[in-house]
Design a protein that fits this description.
This protein is mainly α and 153 residues long. The chain has 7 helices and 2 strands; from the N terminus they run βαβαααααα. Helix 3 packs antiparallel against helix 4 and helix 5 runs antiparallel to helix 6. The radius of gyration is 16 Å and the shape is elongated. The chain starts with 5 loop residues before the first strand and ends with a helix.
C-alpha cells in the first residue's frame, strides 16, 4: 500500500476488538482525481460500482440456484475487475478464490464464499458511503479533505 493512499478502516472490526480490517482503499488514480477537484466524478464512479455490484451479486445468487457455474465464474470475473479498480482488494481476493477453484471445490464451497463476498461488499459499501459524506467539491484542499474524512475509526 502506498504511504499516501487513502484507506478506509472497517469500523465494525475495530469496535469488536478484532484489529483494523482494511476493506476499502481509494486507489491512487481516483485519489489524484479527487486532489484535482473531481469529487463529483468519484461520487459517480462509486455509485456505478455499487449499482453494478448489486446487480452482479443478484445474478450470482440466481446462477448458484440454477447451478449455472459458467455464469457464476463470468460474474465473479467481472466483479473481481471492478473491485480491483475501485480499491476493494478483499472483495477482489474472494472473487479470485472463487474463479480459480476447480469445479468440485467450487460447487462445495461456493455458497459460503458468496456469503463472505456479500458481507465484505456490505462493509465496502458502508465505507464508501461514509467517505462520500465528506467528498470535496474541488479546490486545493481536496486531497487532504479526502484523507482526513475517509479514515473511519
Amino acid at each position: 500500500m502506498e504511504d499516501d493512499a487513502v484507506t478506509v478502516i472497517d469500523a465494525g472490526a475495530v469496535s469488536q476488538g478484532g484489529g483494523c480490517d482494511e476493506v476499502w482503499q481509494l486507489p491512487g488514480t481516483l485519489q489524484a482525481l479527487a486532489a484535482g477537484g473531481c469529487g463529483t466524478l468519484i461520487t459517480e464512479l462509486i455509485g456505478m460500482f455499487k449499482t453494478d455490484t448489486d446487480s452482479r451479486l443478484q445474478a450470482l445468487d440466481d446462477a448458484l440456484v440454477s447451478g449455472n457455474l459458467p455464469l457464476v465464474r463470468q460474474q465473479v470475473h467481472c466483479l473481481k475487475g471492478s473491485a480491483s479498480q475501485m480499491g476493494a482488494g478483499k472483495m477482489a481476493a474472494i472473487c479470485e478464490q472463487i474463479e480459480s477453484a476447480d469445479s468440485e471445490t467450487s460447487t462445495r464451497e461456493l455458497p459460503g464464499q458468496l456469503k463472505e463476498l456479500e458481507a465484505v461488499y456490505e462493509r465496502v459499501g458502508r465505507a464508501m458511503d461514509a467517505a462520500l459524506l465528506n467528498v470535496p467539491c474541488g479546490g486545493a484542499s481536496s486531497r487532504s479533505a479526502w484523507v482526513s474524512s475517509a479514515v473511519l475509526r
